């Protein structure tokens, strides 16, 4: 039996892979228009927007781009971002079982929830489903479809789309692997700052690997880091990405480690993370109760990203 382990050091956040996949599917259609809208609204607020009028227009007339109320621009952006929700619904529609689909259509008829389609001149009932957002459904058949048809790791076929989206936003996947939450079955992707400009992948964060035969001696890997790697000049890309694309970050399966001799050790982390000293962390790993702690407390989600340096350890065997 071959045992293998890895340890990756990265600065970033954890985001549910499913939400990244929905955003990545919509990204090619919405990224350009949203970038333009953000540029216009930013320059409008700063008073630096300059628009060259067409030759046919009255030179004394303020162009429509400069006259349009800011609220209208935000509504347009919201309409574009609805494409992400549409991708989520499309995915769930494919996973919903036949019984739940039939119940949703029947419920729509019973409630009389019909909307007039002016172009067709007819009314169409809008289905009412119980499962409409990406989470574990109550129906066991829908849950089985979710677990069996999506694949593990979840949305593994969307890797290229996710990579391209993050590249456009000055971000990158910190690792090709995924974290599986034992408490809710979701997989998460580590997203970090793209610290190198060349290449679509932007390099990768420092990752150490070690492999060993079950009956043989273990392989030890050691690496030193320059202080420069810890210099983060601007992490606003996280806030822009999460807020614009309506994403959630996962917080609570991480640990906040503090030195053993810290006299000011805190009892509770403001993010709700477990606070352990280095010694306590080692003892916890020896007891192998990290997964049990996660299952007991669940995963904490937030719409406000809190990027920070993290060490991600994985081990397994073949």
TrEMBL record:
Superkingdom of this protein's organism: Eukaryota
Alphabetic keyword roster: Signal
Signal peptide location: 1-28
Protein name: Uncharacterized protein
Organism encoding this protein: Leucosporidium creatinivorum
